[in-house]
């Protein structure tokens, strides 16, 4: 066979790292598909009418060494200072063992969200440790497994309070001592929902005028106060009390639960997660048992497996799939799992005594710093504090701030005359002396004996972190092995393909990952003076420009730190645009029925009415239904949200028509960019008629999934929407550039791929998906093909017929794939009873074949049941997954151990053994336990 030069790029081309099939393997795949090469396949797959006119022009692709050299130079344009700015971002020491064994370990960072609990027991245990830690520190019964950042956690708590409060008041009270970014994000969230935000002093709070209130603890300027009385007043008025608390302070101070708070939120950044110019870090939320079902985000719980052994799982999991339509309470999907895991290990690493000691040291240093300033006559506020003080320096403000910068220290500018100082775990005696020098004082740190400045009444009296996991032997040997044991329980990309439709689990290459650990990216404070972040500015400008070229948009906002946040930010942008044109009444959003659950949830959050649009038998938008609904709601049409290619993995040619109809009726078009891996270099949402799209950088652009986060969901917009982006119309995230410190990953990916490489990745992603569809043809029905019988970058196979013919469900197949050494594809979405397979360009033909062999063998097992050769109940599918325990126990099954444990696909030597049998979901929801159980329980369960 003869190939055109574009079929595959030369072997030494940098993108071979990302492109799985070798040239020889691609030859074989073309034969199977009956095409002469990639050009022909792409012509059959991607309609001409939607193809982009110009190829991507990104300059020459960089090699790894060029990239790392270039990244270093960019990183060095950032100035790493000691930031004592506070505002929820603190210096912290990441224990090197955690940095190496978790943050920099693909077994942890390449894992997917733990929807398949049997292959996720390791990270589920670490997340349960996180929840236990939060629940203990806050004194509240139940915690979730992370939210995106402290500000959005505050906003989530506000809307949750509105849902659960018995008070019918319409206003929400915000303590003026909240961090400014928290106030800003709550205001943004409140506006479209008609919530009036009252910012003021807790002393002036009128409890009966509000459905809830939030207080910052310690306050942004350092105040620590007991909220017990205000909270009692709120409860008397049937309103909800929320405390946004620093978990480090809670190691010394009375916990929110003891004050009567209903909800606590905050950031766990200072538990060993670098500041990273704003993120990613794990925010937390904890609440009383009564409100657990109203809590947003994922919650890890404990259940049992089919043998009655303890097993972890995401509880209330079906609820997350119901973040949709009018029932939506939140759109949180991707959160901050990896960072929550890091924070939990920080607590495991230090234990309660260690944490208390760290908190005490921070406090003593702050007390010493204050004493030195007071001794020199400076006015230090407040009287009682934990780690933050404010000094009134009058006209000296500028001078002090500048002198501090000359000492390598950033202090906080507060009002016109004050300076804020927040100390942390990294503060050294020399740091304190440098701060004094900035105030013109020449003193030695040991001039002052330590003392406590915590108010007596607020000293914490309750214990925390009593569970055994926080009391294990802390020798690093033991720690390292604990992290390794948990990692080994999980199946991540470092072991096998994770063929998750719509989630694009591609390679996260080592060279892309390395720069995120560099101090120049990791240790910048998001509110440090802009001239210290020139490297970041260059990175963000260039990444935005490249994403504009890829998508056909005119500008990008980097604020949203997940895909769903991007949707929300994009819809707010559209709403602001309508408002500016005097059409603020437009509030109807057309969304096809097969949309991702976050779409209607996000529309709900901006106060819009969701009108569902039908899909035809091919999974494409029913254009006539769309037109009819657009006409019907013409006067109020805000816009539509569509996914391209469709969630069914088909390039619909009607997309241009759908965009046109929306525009004719005065609406704006939101194109969900989660499927961008099928488009980069071939087609641009901006050219199709989209006005705004989010990109999941943690899907298409190589940021790892981290076991359920971090992510980045920047939005691209057309020029007319630029003045309405969150930067201008209201913050959606805590930090100006969201989770800025993972942006180097996507940038590195683009720089090392180049325009040609990116396009090749798309083409090979389509090749890989079509190869799987072809190999499974005949055994399974592939739903939804394009006009030439091709699929896009993913394919949906139908397993519904086997429920009737053999009593085999999609769940049985997913669990059986674990025995074969695979993570299941996306299950039952967008169509119930199906599997959506997305191999990505990163997988080799050998891996695709291993997967197809496994799927074909499973089909034969189904056939054996259909034909009565295998028992309908006691068979390898129903008993899947098989554990090592099964292998050594008495074997009473009508199939061999060999067939049970080593089906096609399973490696003989490197066999992945799930640590538990099939997890009982219903049991876990009936017996909701979401903190670490006492060790005695483990013994019981094992009996
Ligand atoms: C993944 C995905 C989202 C949500 O992205 P998150 O980062 O998880 O919030 C939205 N839409 C589609 C189609 C997706 O696949």
TrEMBL record:
The top EC class is oxidoreductase
What EC number(s) does this enzyme carry? Answer: 1.4.4.2
Assigned keywords, A-Z: Oxidoreductase, Pyridoxal phosphate
Which InterPro entries does this one have? Answer: GcvP, GDC-P_C, GDC-P_N, GDC_P, PyrdxlP-dep_Trfase, PyrdxlP-dep_Trfase_major, PyrdxlP-dep_Trfase_small
Which residues are annotated as modified residue N6-(pyridoxal phosphate)lysine in the UniProt record?
Answer: 699
Substrates-to-products reaction catalysed:
N(6)-[(R)-lipoyl]-L-lysyl-[glycine-cleavage complex H protein] + glycine + H(+) = N(6)-[(R)-S(8)-aminomethyldihydrolipoyl]-L-lysyl-[glycine-cleavage complex H protein] + CO2
Per the database record, which ranges form the Glycine dehydrogenase C-terminal domain?
761-882
- According to its UniProt entry, what is the function of this protein? The glycine cleavage system catalyzes the degradation of glycine. The P protein binds the alpha-amino group of glycine through its pyridoxal phosphate cofactor; CO(2) is released and the remaining methylamine moiety is then transferred to the lipoamide cofactor of the H protein.
> Which named protein is this?
Glycine dehydrogenase (decarboxylating)
Q: Which gene encodes it?
A: gcvP
């Amino acid at each position: 066979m003869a190939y055109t030069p574009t079929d595959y790029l030369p072997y030494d081309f940098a993108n071979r790292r990302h492109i799985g099939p070798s040239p020889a393997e691609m030859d074989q795949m073309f034969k199977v598909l009956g095409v002469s090469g990639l050009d022909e396949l792409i012509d059959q797959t991607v309609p001409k009418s939607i193809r982009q006119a110009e190829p991507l022009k990104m300059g020459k692709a960089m090699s790894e060494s060029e990239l790392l050299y270039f990244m270093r130079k960019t990183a060095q344009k950032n100035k790493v200072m000691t930031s004592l700015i506070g505002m929820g971002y603190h210096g912290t020491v990441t224990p090197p063992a955690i940095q190496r064994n978790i943050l920099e370990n693909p077994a942890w960072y390449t894992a997917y969200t733990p929807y398949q609990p049997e292959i996720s027991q390791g990270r589920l245990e670490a997340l349960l440790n996180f929840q236990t830690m939060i629940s203990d520190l806050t004194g509240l019964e139940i915690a979730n497994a992370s939210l995106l950042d402290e500000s959005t956690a505050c906003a989530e708590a506000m809307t949750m309070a509105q849902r659960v409060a018995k008070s019918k008041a319409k206003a929400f009270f915000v303590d003026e001592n909240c961090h400014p970014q928290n106030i800003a994000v709550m205001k943004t969230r409140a506006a479209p929902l008609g919530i009036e935000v009252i910012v003021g002093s807790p002393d002036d709070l009128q409890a009966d005028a509000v459905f809830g209130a939030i207080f910052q603890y310690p306050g942004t300027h350092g105040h620590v106060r007991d909220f017990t009385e205000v909270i009692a007043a709120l409860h008397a008025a049937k309103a909800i009390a929320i405390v946004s608390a620093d978990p480090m302070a809670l190691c010394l101070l009375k916990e929110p639960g003891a004050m009567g708070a209903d909800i606590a939120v905050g950031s766990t950044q200072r538990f060993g997660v670098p500041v990273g110019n704003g993120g990613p870090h794990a925010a937390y939320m904890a609440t009383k048992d009564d409100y657990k079902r109203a809590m947003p985000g994922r919650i890890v719980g404990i259940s049992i497996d089919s043998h009655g052994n303890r097993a972890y799982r995401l509880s209330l999991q079906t609820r997350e799939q119901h973040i949709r339509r009018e029932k939506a309470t939140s759109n949180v999907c991707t959160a901050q799992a990896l960072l929550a895991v890091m924070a939990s290990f920080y607590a495991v690493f230090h234990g309660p005594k260690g944490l208390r000691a760290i908190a005490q040291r921070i406090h003593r240093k702050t007390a010493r710093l204050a004493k030195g300033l007071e001794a020199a006559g400076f006015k230090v506020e407040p009287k009682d504090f934990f780690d933050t003080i404010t000094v009134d320096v009058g006209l000296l403000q500028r001078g002090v701030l500048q002198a501090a910068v000359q000492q390598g220290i950033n202090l906080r500018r507060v009002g016109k005359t004050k300076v804020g100082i927040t100390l942390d775990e990294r503060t050294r005696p020399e740091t304190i002396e440098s701060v004094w020098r900035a105030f013109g004082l020449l003193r030695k740190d040991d001039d002052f004996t330590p003392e406590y400045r915590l108010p007596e009444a607020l000293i914490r009296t309750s214990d925390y972190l009593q569970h055994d996991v926080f009391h294990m032997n802390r020798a690093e040997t033991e720690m390292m092995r604990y992290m390794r044991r948990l990692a080994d329980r999980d199946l991540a990309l470092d072991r096998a393909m994770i063929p998750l439709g719509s989630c694009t689990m591609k390679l996260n290459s080592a060279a892309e990952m390395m720069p995120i650990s560099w101090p120049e990216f990791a240790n910048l404070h998001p509110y440090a003076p802009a001239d210290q972040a020139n490297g970041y500015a260059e990175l963000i400008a260039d990444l935005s420009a490249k994403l504009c070229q890829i998508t056909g948009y005119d500008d990008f906002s980097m604020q949203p730190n997940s895909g769903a946040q991007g949707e929300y930010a994009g819809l707010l942008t559209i709403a602001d645009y309508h408002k500016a044109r005097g059409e603020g009444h437009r509030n109807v959003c057309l969304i096809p029925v097969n949309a991702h659950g976050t779409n209607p949830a996000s529309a709900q959050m901006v106060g819009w009415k969701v009108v569902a649009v039908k899909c035809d038998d091919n999974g494409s938008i029913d254009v006539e239904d769309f037109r009819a609904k657009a006409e019907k709601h013409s006067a109020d049409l805000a816009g539509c949200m569509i996914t391209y290619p469709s969630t069914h993995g088909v390039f619909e040619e009607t997309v241009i028509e759908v965009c046109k109809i929306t525009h004719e009726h005065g609406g704006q078009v939101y194109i969900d960019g989660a499927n961008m891996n099928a488009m980069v270099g071939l087609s641009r949402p901006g050219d199709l008629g989209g006005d705004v799209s989010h990109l999941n950088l943690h899907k298409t652009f190589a940021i790892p999934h981290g076991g359920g986060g971090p992510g980045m969901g920047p939005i691209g917009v057309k020029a007319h929407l630029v003045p309405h982006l969150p930067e201008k119309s209201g913050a959606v995230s805590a930090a100006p550039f969201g989770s800025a410190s993972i942006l180097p990953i996507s940038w590195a990916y683009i720089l090392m791929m180049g325009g040609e490489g990116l396009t090749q990745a798309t083409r090979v992603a389509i090749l890989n998906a079509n190869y799987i569809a072809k190999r499974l043809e005949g055994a399974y029905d592939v739903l939804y093909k394009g006009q030439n019988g091709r699929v896009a970058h993913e394919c949906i196979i139908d397993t519904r017929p086997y429920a009737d013919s053999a009593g085999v469900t999609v769940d049985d197949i997913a669990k059986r794939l674990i025995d074969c050494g695979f993570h299941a594809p996306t299950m039952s979405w967008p169509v119930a009873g199906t599997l959506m397979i997305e191999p990505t360009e990163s997988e080799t033909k050998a891996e695709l074949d291993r997967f197809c062999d496994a799927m074909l063998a499973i089909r034969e097992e189904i056939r054996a049941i259909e034909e009565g050769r295998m028992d309908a109940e006691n068979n390898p599918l129903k008993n899947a997954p098989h554990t090592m325990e099964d292998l050594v126990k008495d074997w009473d099954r009508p199939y061999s151990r060999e067939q049970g444990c080593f089906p096609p696909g399973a490696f003989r030597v490197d066999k992945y053994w799930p640590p538990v049998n099939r997890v009982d979901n219903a049991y876990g929801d009936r017996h909701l336990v979401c903190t670490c159980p006492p060790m005695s329980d483990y013994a019981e369960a094992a009996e």
